[in-house]
Give the backbone structure.
Amino acid sequence: MPNGEASPSPSPQGSGTAHEQDNDPGDGVARDTPAPTPSQTAQDGRAEVSVILTRWSTSRPFEVGGLITDITEQGGTCTLTVARGETSLRASGSGAAGPNGVNCGDGLSIDDAALSAGTWNVTLSYSSSAYVGTSATQEVTLS
């Protein structure tokens, strides 16, 4: 080349991450990358998933919502447990597949006379034929 200039190298086809290359918006074909696979297995053979409490109320009726980010499936059961001392109250509802995982919230409400003001330990669990998991315990003060 004249004047010692280097010619530009051809750029590789595609750019970005492998996911971006697989899902090329210009080719007219949508490709979803597989959801992360839970890596731990419960004693009963079901895969353990992460359960996250995403919202909760601070009065009666006590309501929570949560998300299981490792999977997307329909039909599992979400269970809210609210405990203090010898008192343990539960409510269950169906998990719903959403764009970011399984959403828990339907039916997860407790309006019981035993649910009095004060600090309660709250957990959210998820169970299906293939998956199981429980959130970290959250202390919630009810008014």
